[in-house]
Amino acid sequence: MVDAKEECEPEWLDSEDPLFILYTSGSTGKPKGVLHTVAGYLLYTALTFKYVFDYHEDDVYWSTADIGWITGHSYITYGPLANGATSVMFEGIPTYPHVGRFWEIIEKYKVTQFYTAPTAIRLLMKYGNEVIQKYDLNSLKILGTVGEPINPEAWLWYYNVIGNKRCPIVDTFWQTETTFPFFGVVPAVLNEHGEELVGEAEGYLVFKQPWPSIMRTVYGNHERFENTYFRKFPGYYVAGDGCKRDKDGYIWITGRIDDMLNVSGHLLSTAEVEAALAEHPAVAEAAVVSRPHTVKGECLYCFVILKDGKKFTEVISEELKKQVREKIGPIATPDFIQNAPGLPKTRSGKIMRRVLRQIARNEKDLGDISTLADPSIVEVLFSQRCEAAA
């Protein structure tokens, strides 16, 4: 360090040189290497940070996101640094060493912009309002939420209790939820035939033109990039979400159009979780769906068919949870694993996931199941639901 130069010359790069590759779940189970480039990504993260969070010179900004997640990349690292922002850096969980940890930090550093996920909000709601009343949160000016749709109860608590009814909530959409589009983003709602719908409508959320920070490719597989985002409706970028537009022009996300799971704001594909379960020597087949969770938004409910001669035990259940956790990460740990003698499949062999979701949620109104090869399996699966998933 003694001999180090005081100045470090920057490396000159082309605007379209790769900046980073971030791997995210793919609907086929194989992770996608999302490639972002230097100029477009930096421009947009700098611009969105400045205007979405209304950042000014004397503000103190805090995002609780994981820095390895795209939100952490964008709104802990690149966006704040590009604006010369004063940021709080935090490592840990919201409830350790005590449940007032977040509010203590806001008071200590006089945080003005606070950005977190609905999962954290729902978690902290459980501990009541008395905890918050111990701390001075009057420095707050802007509240942000990111990663998954926020339910009305959590939004109102965040607004009324944390923001004291005076802080606007920025409900940001990085393909999870949204309100109005940002500069340069032109959304549209299409029907199944690719026809653009006007006024109040429900259909596929697409974008009509590129914006500076749009991902440039899936690393090493540009064909997959084209197939995933552009092939279904040529001339549009397909977000992968269904949406509805209300009479006021607000866009509401209705859910993923593929078999994706949203757990604590992290998208997981059913295929990757099922693959992890199926690697266990006792498992012949697995199917994974989501069910509502009061804290995480959604949690994983897994159906496993064991190989002949294998008996389902608590030991196997814990081994399966551990295996998924080790293969994918703690965020993917299943909450429920049900022993299944079979799965509801069509005559062509396709798993009818709609039925599995209804079983996981104990919803008996199944609608039309005439295409199932063996409809009797449905009643069996209902009778063997996990007891804790009442």
TrEMBL record:
Keywords from the UniProt entry: ATP-binding, Ligase, Lipid metabolism, Nucleotide-binding
InterPro entries cross-referenced by the UniProt entry: AMP-bd_C, AMP-bd_C_sf, AMP-binding, AMP-binding_CS, AMP-dep_synth/lig_dom, ANL_N_sf
MF term (GO), any: acetate-CoA ligase activity
Domain of life from the UniProt record: Eukaryota
AMP-binding enzyme C-terminal domain residues: 272-350
The UniProt record lists the keyword Transmembrane helix: no
PROSITE patterns membership: AMP_BINDING (PS00455)
Domain AMP-dependent synthetase/ligase: 7-183
Protein name per its UniProtKB record: acetate--CoA ligase
